[in-house]
Design a protein that fits this description.
251 residues, alpha/beta, Conserved hypothetical protein from pyrococcus furiosus pfu- 392566-001, ParB domain, 2 domains
Length: 251
């Protein structure tokens, strides 16, 4: 047998938001507001009950949109089979949204950071600190050595490969983007660079390769009008034939 939620009508003012869910986006609230304006509201908000209070585990953007419409009550699916444990509820939120494309990489990082996981708290802070120059995917790649998907990170099993080095790599990448711009040095190239550099066996080797990458970017962009290649094959070819070759000549 599987659990079936009971539908109850609750006051919108009685529904709280919970740690572990994504941050509310004003643009997404506006999108929900417009959809409700055009089509009405024919849905339920998924909530859990903890200590006689209701918390939304899915639908917080719809709640904000409903409030803007002045709606005082809303139908809710009350999930009453969770025991109130933070980790269980957090995982339930992630499972509900596992196939929801609107959950970004940052949303997953925030969710685990809300659990007071220090690895994720630091990663979240780095994403926020460098958001003007680096994509969240680039920052994540600098720490987990994965170019795309970041499955372990999303599942809550993210661990650092070399934290101090990754901090320095993120900072250098940001400086390069500030100097040359994203059109010359795009996110796909930086993600792949992070993956290839952090694969070096030792911290010393990583710093040496990072230096070679910095010099190679400088040489390329000061002598050519073309950006750093950012297709997977074209970048790897450039990296192996330019960065690695230069790295072999460095002391």
């Amino acid at each position: 047998m599987f659990n079936i939620a009971k539908v109850e009508t609750l006051k919108t003012s009685s529904i709280n938001f919970i740690d572990g869910n994504r941050e509310v986006s004003e643009s997404h609230v506006q999108k929900m507001y417009n959809l409700i304006t055009e089509n009405g509201f024919a849905d339920t908000i998924k909530v859990v009950k903890i200590d006689n209070k209701f918390y939304a585990v899915e639908g917080q953007h719809r709640i904000e949109a409903i409030k803007l419409h002045g709606i005082k009550e809303v139908p809710c699916s009350v999930i009453d089979w969770l025991n109130g444990d933070f980790e269980e509820i957090q995982q339930y939120i992630i499972d509900l949204n596992a196939h929801n494309k609107s959950w970004s990489l940052y949303d997953y990082v925030k969710s685990w950071a809300d659990k007071k996981n220090n690895n994720y708290i630091h990663l979240r802070n780095q994403m926020i600190s460098y958001q003007k120059t680096l994509s969240n995917g680039v920052v994540a790649s600098c720490y987990d050595g994965i170019s795309r998907s970041h499955k372990n990170l999303k599942k809550g099993s993210f661990n650092y490969i070399d934290k101090k080095f990754s901090d320095d790599m993120v900072d250098l990448f940001s400086q390069l983007v500030i100097k040359w711009g994203r059109k010359k040095l795009g996110s796909p190239a930086l993600r792949l660079a992070a993956v290839l550099i952090i694969k070096e066996k030792t911290t010393e080797d990583r710093y040496k390769m990072l230096k070679a990458f910095q010099i190679s970017v400088l040489n390329h962009l000061t002598t050519s009008q073309e950006p750093i290649p950012d297709g997977d094959e074209s970048f790897i070819y450039w990296f192996n034939n330019v960065v690695v070759e230069l790295n072999n000549t460095l002391n």
